[in-house]
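Hey team,

Filing this mostly as a record. A colleague (T.K.) asked me to run one chain through the structure pipeline before their review meeting, and I want the input and output archived in the tracker in case anyone asks later how it was produced. No errors, nothing strange. Just documentation.

Input sequence:
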Amino acid sequence: MIRKLRLTTGLILACFVTLHLSNHALGLIALPVMEQALGWFVVFWHQPIATALLYGALATHFLLALWSLYCRTTLRMPLWEALQLLLGLSIPPLLMGHVIGTRLSSEWLAFTPSYETTIAIIWTIDNGVLRQTSLVVVLWLHLLIGLHYWQRLSSRYSRWLPLWQLLAALLPILSVLGFYRMGYQLGPIDLASRGARLTAEHPAAMAMLSELEDQLLSGYLAALTLVLLARYIRRLYLVNVGAVTVEHPIRGQFAARQGQTLLEALRSAKVPHSSVCGGRARCTTCRVRVVRGLDQLETAGPDELRALAGINADRNVRLACQLHLKDDLAIVPLIPPELGMMYVRKPGGVEGQEQQVTVLFIDLRDSTGLAEQRLPYDVVFILNQFFAEMSEVLHQTGGHYAQFIGDGLMALYGLESDYSTGCRQAILGAQQMLSRLQQLNQRLGSELEQPLRVGIGIHSGEAIVGTMGPPESPILSAIGDTINTAARIEAETKKHDVSLILSQETAQRSGVSLPESESKQIAIRGRSQLLDVVLIRAPDEIKG
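Output structure:
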């Protein structure tokens, strides 16, 4: 929840900053253009809801940053994390004067500061231009690091990385140049007179705003000091309570503090360890095998379990970034630290991201018998007719052909729609497939000793969706437990002598009317618990 809240508030602030800097860049055209764009900008962001959203996001993001700093049990971290942390802590002192001089002054002095007035104030106060320039650079770098390490595992982001880099470099440069051009265009005499006039017209308010900046800066430094002091007190407590011993195959034994994550302990001990996602359980490159002390560890959380399930990890495999130390243990790293991103991006591997999808497997029954009774070309003709009908259904119902499996195929729904729509489309797609099969059997009746029969299995949930396979012929497909379960559901259609079995998860999300009498629990190979499913024998049982 904290991670999602930090991301959401960060994206709100990133939107505001991007629009604001774009407005600055219009200074390269003309001041009236800047002022016109500012009017549109103010109309939106000065609305009560937008204001509450913006400043709520700013306060929440700042408090989460202090909480994150407190929660760290070590300040040893990769360079990019340290840089993002230092830049983030540098923003409030630089930002306070700007917020007070623009938003608070407009509220207290009952006027909306124009670009002309704002530029005049910045250029006439001590170090105003330097602070403004530093604010743009520091804020933008902090934003870029956050966005990059949020999206860097995404294949779409990597594919367009040169374009993002170009835009990321151009926007702050154009913004600063627009600000400087307006400053030089107005001239030092004009700027000084405007600044002096504003101070003379509102002396008490201007003095109050100046005092407020000092008070906010003191409050910020006090909060930061309290966090650092709390960290120090916690460290003394943990050291006095006791330490644990970690045994590493290369580093040997070293002491670590209780409560640290294993990744933090390795960093504190200066032991190189792979961690592509920065310790957020978004990848498995920090995984280790626990060879001693496994039973004393806390149970893995949902994020860790989901990540490990994606690689079908053994019980003694844990993520170093999520494993909190309580007792002595011995571990073996499973990914060499020098691989890192190379491991994630290696050719022929998987480039994808987590997504909720609906998976449909369809398999043609008794295809072996079909081949034994006919010439190869006749079999190919029938199979081509079958796959042509199934492919047409996928095209009409929003399905994506993901994999060809001999006499069957795998399809994905919900790639370009919401989760519930994908579930609904998959069920209606299966209904059409069964109807098309009936029509095909009528059309090929004279050539078939017995009608063609199929089994269809449908399941929904999270999967890794992306390009995968050999470098010469990658395909857009998916992997994960959801895919395996869907395939095993399809295999159950033969055992229960039905055409279609779909999971209750899919049925409930879809909103499609299905026969309640056919709901039951069945055992699925590889799953310890029974799975709730719905059995469908004929397409007319589905009421769209």
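Quick notes for T.K.: The CA atoms of residues 104 and 209 lie 8 Å apart. The first helix runs from residue 2 to 25.
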